[in-house]
Amino acid sequence: MSLKQLVDKATDKSNFADLKAYIKFCDEYLHYISDNLQAIIISQNENHYQFFQYRKEGNFQITRPINSNLMYHANDFSKVSKEFLKIL
């Protein structure tokens, strides 16, 4: 999935009608960033804060700081999200 497809999906509220749709989007985004970032910039002061820099497709934009303690990696998320739904 491309960055444009992810943005288009995120801006269409009908794609988020239930919890499974949110989980699916998160999974798609995490898989995208696992292979398609230009760089991950780590804050000097707080090393758990990271900035993602997109490639040319995202005009080399840099995100706001992201607390990596609150993010899963794509492989971990796939496993944990299944357990999350079972618990609910």
Describe the structure.
There is one protein chain. The chain is α+β, with helices and mostly antiparallel strands and 88 residues long. The protein has one domain. It has helices at 3-11, 19-35, 74-87; strands spanning 37-42, 49-54, 66-67. The radius of gyration is 14 Å and the shape is globular. The mean pLDDT is 94.
Notable characteristics:
88 residues; alpha+beta; globular
Q: Quickly give the structural class.
A: alpha+beta
The N- and C-terminal alpha carbons lie at a distance of: 29 Å
Largest sheet: 3 strands, antiparallel
Compute the number of helices: 3
Mean pLDDT value:
94
Poorly predicted runs of 5 or more residues = none
List SSEs in N-to-C order: HHEEEH
Strand line-up in the sheet with most strands: 1-2-3
Instruction: Give the C-alpha Rg.
Output: 14 Å
List the domain count as a whole number: 1
